[in-house]
Q: What sequence folds into this?
């Protein structure tokens, strides 16, 4: 009797070892996948549901093996909700690993330096991968939903590429971009040069947005920042076209005219002194740094030279500036005629 019992134990052990080896081989062999596809783990879904679904698609030959392995290892209750990319060469083991780790598929939106708030918001609203909750409400209401009451939205969101899983809300996305701008602005403000004509980081942000719109070349950013800061210090009007264009809003048709420069709005820096009331675009980190560390010159003016690269000619006096304008702008217009 004892001998038979020992035989039974040995036989059971052999069966267990063979079965375990079979499960191990199954879990470590690539699944039958010809091309990548997306699979969504929904709230409340189980390993059995996952296994059966993959079996029905001809990907798993023994779905119960995946379920058994997940239960034995304690991973059956650790599945993370989300959308996953299942790729050729993936094994049941690696599939379970990414789902337990929550390595969901990431989508992205790139907020572009120099775009204004409405352009940025349109990007967010056009994304099919975000959950949209901020529809048919005003800009003031949007900022309130984000938790930033009584703040103008322009320039508040940091231009960068943001990755996120499907189902992220537009509120979560915008709050993240807002927080990034706050972080970068605070860091730059903390290390700013002494003697800048800004009382608050927000004033520096306004200036950075102007520099962003006026500087096409990275090499000119600190020089252009220096020009505007020199003008502020001398209490000269900034006289920059991008602020006028921003003030025109939807009325701007792509061609700025002399009458536009004379039409007063809160953003017309030809008719009003000092900074405009808000930023006019999303400044990038280089524009922010340029404002915090402007190049020290005696320049007060600059004019585009029309070289197709966005280069400018800089000058310290009005007479020199008029000469450069005549050289690069007026003569060019006359030649076109």
A:
């Amino acid at each position: 009797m004892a001998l038979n019992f020992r035989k039974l134990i040995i036989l059971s052990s052999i069966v267990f070892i063979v079965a375990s080896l079979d499960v191990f081989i199954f879990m470590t062999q690539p699944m039958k996948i010809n091309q990548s596809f997306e699979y969504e783990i929904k709230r409340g879904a189980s390993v059995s549901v996952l296994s059966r679904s993959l079996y029905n698609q001809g990907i798993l030959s023994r779905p119960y093996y995946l379920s058994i392995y997940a239960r034995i290892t304690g991973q059956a209750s650790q599945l993370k909700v989300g959308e996953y990319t299942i790729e050729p060469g993936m094994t049941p083991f690696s599939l379970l690993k990414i789902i337990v780790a929550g390595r969901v598929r990431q989508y992205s939106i790139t907020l572009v330096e120099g775009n204004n708030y409405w352009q940025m918001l349109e990007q967010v609203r056009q994304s099919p991968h975000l959950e949209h909750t901020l529809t048919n409400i005003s800009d003031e209401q949007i900022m309130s939903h984000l938790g930033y009451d009584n703040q103008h939205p322009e320039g508040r969101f940091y231009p960068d590429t943001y990755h996120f899983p499907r189902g992220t809300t537009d509120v979560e996305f915008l709050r993240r971009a807002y927080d990034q701008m706050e972080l970068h602005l605070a860091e730059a403000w903390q290390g700013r040069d002494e003697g800048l004509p800004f009382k608050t980081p927000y004033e520096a942000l306004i200036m950075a947005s102007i520099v962003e719109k006026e500087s096409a070349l990275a090499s000119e950013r600190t020089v252009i920042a220096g020009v505007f800061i020199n003008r502020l210090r001398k209490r000269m009007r900034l006289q920059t076209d991008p602020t006028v264009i921003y003030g025109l809003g939807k009325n701007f048709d792509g061609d700025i005219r002399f009458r536009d420069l004379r039409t007063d709005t809160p953003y017309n820096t030809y008719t009003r002194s000092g900074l405009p009331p808000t930023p006019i675009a999303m400044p990038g980190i280089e524009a922010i740094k340029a404002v915090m560390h402007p190049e020290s010159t005696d320049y007060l003016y600059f004019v585009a030279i029309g070289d197709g690269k966005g280069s400018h000619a800089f000058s310290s006096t009005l007479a020199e500036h008029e000469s450069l304008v005549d050289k690069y702008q007026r003569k060019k217009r006359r030649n076109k005629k």
Notes: Residues 86 and 95 are 7 Å apart (CA to CA). The first strand starts at residue 37 and ends at 41. The beta strands are 37-41, 82-86, 106-110, 161-165, 301-304, 312-315. Residues 106-297 form one domain.
